[in-house]
Amino acid sequence: MNILDKIVAHKQIEVQQAAKTTSQEQLMDQPLFNEAVPSLKGFIADPGKTGVITEFKRQSPSKGIINGNATVEEVVTGYEKAGSSALSVLTDQQFFGGCNQDLTTARALTTIPILRKDFIIDPYQVYEAKAIGASAILLIAAILDVNQAKELGALANYLGMEVLMELHAPEEADKLNPFVDVVGINNRNLKTFEVNLEQSIQLANRLPADKLKISESGIHSPEDVFFLRENGFDGFLIGENFMKTNNPAEAFARFAKAIAVKANA
């Protein structure tokens, strides 16, 4: 089994256990379940914003501990203040050190959209995402078949959330459907975790013209952002580049300032 297979196998068990602890009906009774949320698509499309989705991530299977000291409170508020278009919050605990409370905390402290970054394979997780305050869910094409992708996307839209579908291979574009609001291309091979920035460019021409395009992973500089923007990308999901520093919010503030300077040059 590769790392992605291991994550999905564990996630199946995790979802079954969560459903026994908290029913779908109990999720629907949570205060945030009926709250309106800001639009990820709208914030990314806003030309007055950076287009950067900043991520809160403590660890990963490929890098181990990235930042074990940063707190959600300090990082996400700093991200928003520095001009982040949206937040991505890891809620997987076993492999990424996150939790649902991280997202709920971020929702209480910020006004920008929040993407629930997890390995979503079951409708229960979509209800859960809404209950904890997510604006959008991540659907990873590599772990879903066409019908699953459509079912989960339709449910998310029905519950008032948007969908970011992540692709990392050309053949996965067949899993796009009308319920997908934003398409992300992961420059990291999810089976080997190797990074190749050219991945975004190679897949860009396969994306429908009406879908917002996000490049994910391996983005390290304002030059990368402008290169990708010139090739048709609207947004950029960046996590490790900021989280690996002692002050992720300050690192993003410098990055955002450099983008603005370059844009005005």
UniProtKB/TrEMBL annotation:
It holds the Pfam family IGPS. The keyword Hydrolase does not apply. Pathway: Amino-acid biosynthesis; L-tryptophan biosynthesis; L-tryptophan from chorismate: step 4/5. Keywords: Amino-acid biosynthesis, Aromatic amino acid biosynthesis, Decarboxylase, Lyase, Tryptophan biosynthesis. Gene3D superfamilies: Aldolase class I (3.20.20.70). Residues 4-252 form the Indole-3-glycerol phosphate synthase domain. InterPro entries: Aldolase_TIM, Indole-3-glycerol_P_synth, Indole-3-glycerol_P_synth_dom, RibuloseP-bd_barrel. One of its GO terms (molecular function) is indole-3-glycerol-phosphate synthase activity. Its EC number is 4.1.1.48. The keyword Glycosyltransferase does not apply. It catalyses: 1-(2-carboxyphenylamino)-1-deoxy-D-ribulose 5-phosphate + H(+) = (1S,2R)-1-C-(indol-3-yl)glycerol 3-phosphate + CO2 + H2O. NCBIfam families: PRK00278.2-4. Belongs to the TrpC family. This is Indole-3-glycerol phosphate synthase.
